[in-house]
Design a protein that fits this description.
This protein has 350 residues and is an alpha+beta fold. It has helices at residues 3-14, 22-31, 36-42, 44-54, 101-113, 121-137, 152-155, 159-170, 179-188, 235-240, 249-253, 294-308, 315-324, 329-349, and strands spanning 63-66, 75-79, 85-89, 96-99, 142-143, 194-200, 212-219, 222-230, 265-267, 270-275, 280-281. The protein has one domain (3-157, 241-261, 281-349). The strands form three sheets. It has a five-stranded antiparallel sheet, with helices on one face. Strands 5-3-2-11 form a four-stranded antiparallel sheet.
């Protein structure tokens, strides 16, 4: 099936899962023409449906509860219950049980498609695997004020980035969320927060089109924000049987080896979270200006392993499967997947 037919089928399915924001879908369609990297971010549904055809040798691997839509810009920061600054995967909208290598391949593919890398694709894949093996051996979160202080330059916003964040907040358009969602947003704010205004926000790649609301309030000298984004079943579900299932979002986000965000919750099929300059995604893709190094890719592989290790089938089984795989399997699979993504991108762009 062509990409466009899959896109139409997925969007028809999505419209049955939530009240789609048509203008945001149009924005998504325009962004998908800008680069193959942005296209990959926006089209997890196609990846989910086709990866078994692109890389059939991966589909018999042990299955684990996985991120699904893992890519270079699915990493960010948040504060845990003790106020510690944490870095790691911060979007689990597409979480589902699948062959565990697929997360690694999608991450490696996104690195191939992004600009700014200072190492070869083969070396990047090797770095991901090195970090992944280390994470399976000793899974734990990345704490930026203690164990992983070297990651702080990637994670801590500069004054200019903080100013940009607050400038964007000032420009959020007014919105009128459903009553239950408005009440949930207010309930997640500090009790004595004042001057609450409700806004909409256009963010993300694959999630564009889902309703997304923000409560902006004043509290003890400054602004505080809470976001609510519609949660729908994983596109992995759409790709394989089309039936709605309970979300695995919180199970992965609050896994055994993570330092979870205490503000992250699900209410009435919406994801609620705190957003702030220190609680956000980090942009590493096209034009972000970073020089991407092996150490960063190792950290990404490590964090992914800490996510996979928390559930079935367990770290020992995943390590045993890795040992059986050919030396360059990840780089080879990512190369194959990227070629297919580029073909889809050209179909969409033309």
């Amino acid at each position: 099936m062509s990409f466009r037919k899959d896109n139409d089928a997925f969007e028809a399915w999505l419209a049955k899962q939530c009240d789609v924001v048509a203008k945001d879908v149009d924005t998504k369609h325009r962004r998908m023409k800008k680069s193959a990297f942005i296209f990959l971010r926006a089209t997890y549904f196609r990846w989910a449906k086709q990866i078994g055809k692109w890389c059939p040798e991966l589909m018999n691997a042990p299955q684990a509860l996985s991120v699904g839509d893992l890519h270079l810009e699915n990493f960010g920061t948040w504060r845990d219950a003790d106020g510690r600054l944490v870095w790691g995967v911060n979007d689990f909208d597409e979480a589902a049980v699948m062959p565990y290598p697929l997360d690694l391949v999608r991450l490696a593919a996104s690195i191939r498609l992004a600009s700014g890398g200072s190492i070869s694709n083969q070396a990047a894949a090797a770095a991901l695997l090195k970090g992944y093996r280390e994470g399976l051996a000793q899974p734990q979160p990345a704490l930026l004020d203690e164990g992983e202080t070297w990651l702080r330059p990637y994670a801590v916003g500069t004054d200019d980035k903080s100013k940009k964040f607050w400038k964007e907040v000032a420009l959020y358009p007014k919105a009128d969320p459903p009553r239950k969602i408005a009440d949930a947003l207010i309930g997640s704010l500090p009790k004595d927060a004042e001057n609450v205004r409700f806004c909409s926000r256009v963010k993300g790649g694959g999630s564009l089109g889902r309703p997304r609301y923000v409560a902006v309030a004043f509290w003890r000298g400054g602004q505080v924000l809470r976001e609510a984004k519609a949660l729908v079943p994983s596109a992995w579900t759409w790709a394989y049987d089309g039936k709605s299932r309970a979300s695995n979002f919180l199970e992965l986000a609050n896994g055994q080896y993570r330092a979870p965000d205490p503000f992250l919750e699900v209410r009435d099929r919406f994801i609620l979270r705190r957003i702030a300059p220190d609680s956000r995604k980090i942009e590493f893709g096209d034009g972000a200006g970073w020089s991407l190094k092996a150490s960063l890719f190792e950290a990404m592989g490590f964090d992914l392993a800490s996510i996979h290790a928390a559930g079935s089938p367990g770290a020992a089984t995943l390590r045993a499967d890795l040992k059986k795989r050919p030396r360059d399997w990840l780089n080879t699979a990512a190369k194959t997947a990227v070629a297919a993504v580029r073909r889809d991108f050209e179909e969409w762009r033309n």
